[in-house]
């Protein structure tokens, strides 16, 4: 064991992911703030800014959970000129959140209602990233934020992303990545292997869920490795940029 590191067998991943997110759904947003010192808000803001969403864009927010990304997209769409007129007259494209976990979706729906978003602006759909409930070549932008790490077979999710995107459509992913600085990596390990499970225990009463989180970050492909998986799935002009020395990276690629 390394800083209390315990391993979860791969075949247990799907059920583990299920129980992790059901248990933490109600505390999910608070936990993100605590664990990342609020930084996840900045990463998500920067991520959505680069999507440049418009009212007519068809966007799928895969593993969208409680709606953090979808709501930011709706806010951006609302800033568009004549948005309200479009909404009333011929409608706008709703952001479609797809998630495998009903409890996360439920929290998302409640948050959307509280924020005053209508169903024509954001929709919550139950579904699996590896078998998306969307027709081929219908989506302008595929978005996945801190979700790919939890998918059992990321390669299968990439093939699905490629299938649902229209030619010219763009793939966008935000995910934890490989820290590019040894000192920061050391501090990050200390923090993530000891402090995060402890916060998980105290706040969400679920140490294992947050142990799993830390472990899944460790196991996820590096920036270069993931970019290769994207290329293998058919994406072109694949690129990534890093936030905070690679704690998080944003990937993009086109289906051409
Ligand atoms: N995108 C949101 C955000 O950035 O705050 C939520 C991210 S949360 C860390 C990961 C989400 O992935 C959970 O809501 C979980 O239910 C979902 N998930 C895990 N495996 C999935 C799959 N195979 N298909 C769809 N969603 C999945």
UniProtKB/TrEMBL annotation:
Topology relative to the lipid bilayer, per the entry, is:
Peripheral membrane protein
> What does the entry list under GO cellular component?
extrinsic component of mitochondrial inner membrane
Share an example GO biological-process annotation for this protein. Answer: methylation
- On whether Mitochondrion is a keyword of this UniProt record, the answer is yes
Return the EC number. Answer: 2.1.1.201
Q: Which Pfam families match?
A: Ubie_methyltran
> Mind listing the UniProt keywords for this protein, alphabetically?
Membrane, Methyltransferase, Mitochondrion, Mitochondrion inner membrane, S-adenosyl-L-methionine, Transferase, Ubiquinone, Ubiquinone biosynthesis
The molecular function terms of the Gene Ontology recorded here are:
2-methoxy-6-polyprenyl-1,4-benzoquinol methyltransferase activity
Give every PAS domain span. Answer: 80-123
Q: In which pathway does it act?
A: Cofactor biosynthesis; ubiquinone biosynthesis
Which range is the signal sequence, renumbered to this chain? none
Give residues annotated as binding S-adenosyl-L-methionine: 66, 99, 128-129, 145
Q: Where's it found, cell-wise?
A: Mitochondrion inner membrane
Q: Does the keyword Transferase apply?
A: yes
Q: Which HAMAP family has this protein been placed in?
A: MenG_UbiE_methyltr
Q: PANTHER family per the record?
A: 2-METHOXY-6-POLYPRENYL-1,4-BENZOQUINOL METHYLASE, MITOCHONDRIAL (PTHR43591:SF24), METHYLTRANSFERASE (PTHR43591)
What protein name applies here? 2-methoxy-6-polyprenyl-1,4-benzoquinol methylase, mitochondrial
UniProt source species: Galdieria sulphuraria (Red alga)
Biological classification of the source? Eukaryota, Rhodophyta, Bangiophyceae, Galdieriales, Galdieriaceae
């Amino acid at each position: 064991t390394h800083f209390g590191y315990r391993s979860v067998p791969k075949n247990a991943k799907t059920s583990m992911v299920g129980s992790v997110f059901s248990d933490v759904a109600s505390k999910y947003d608070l936990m993100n703030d605590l664990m990342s010192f609020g930084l996840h808000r900045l990463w998500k803001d920067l991520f959505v800014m680069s999507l440049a969403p418009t009212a007519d864009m068809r966007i799928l927010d895969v593993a969208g959970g409680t709606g953090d990304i979808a709501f930011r997209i709706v806010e951006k769409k609302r800033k568009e000129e004549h948005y309200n007129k479009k909404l009333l007259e011929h409608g706008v494209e709703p952001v479609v959140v797809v998630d495998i976990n009903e409890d996360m979706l439920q929290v998302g729906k409640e948050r959307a209602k509280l924020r005053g978003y209508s169903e024509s602006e954001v929709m919550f759909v139950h579904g699996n990233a590896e078998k998306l409930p969307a027709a081929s070549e219908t989506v302008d932008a595929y978005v996945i934020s801190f979700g790919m790490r939890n998918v059992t077979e990321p390669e299968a999710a990439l093939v699905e992303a490629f299938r649902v995107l229209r030619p010219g459509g763009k793939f966008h992913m935000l995910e934890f990545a490989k820290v590019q600085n040894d000192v920061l990596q050391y501090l990050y390990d200390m923090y993530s292997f000891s402090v995060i499970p402890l916060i998980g225990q105290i706040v969400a009463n679920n140490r294992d869920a947050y142990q799993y989180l830390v472990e899944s970050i460790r196991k996820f492909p590096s920036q270069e490795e993931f970019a290769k998986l994207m290329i293998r799935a058919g994406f072109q002009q694949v690129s990534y940029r890093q936030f905070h020395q690679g704690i998080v990276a944003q990937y993009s690629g086109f289906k051409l």
